[in-house]
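Same chain as my last thread, 109 residues:
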Amino acid sequence: MSKRGSTSNYSTGIRAEKSVASTYSSHGWSVKQSPGSRGAADLTCSKGSVTHYVQVKSSTTSAKPYISSSEAGRLKSTATRNDATSVVAKVHHGAQNISYAKSGHAVKF
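reply #2:
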């Protein structure tokens, strides 16, 4: 992939992370973004005693966002070790689908 393509993908990912962070914030959650998107989760969102570790996946092409089984496993195990809930947020053409990694059910804010 060209440098331009990877920069574009990175920018798309950052915009998606900010969009999901905004959704959590608008519902009263405290949000921390992982520096450089390092680690199992892109966002750590907390409200009261509840913490969500959120992995954000995005796409602006016809292909839908996808989380690999190894990424999902890493997210789930990291969240479990830290008494948090694992969440996957998929952003496709700006539309968000935020669901629990284990059940696939939508997060209700």
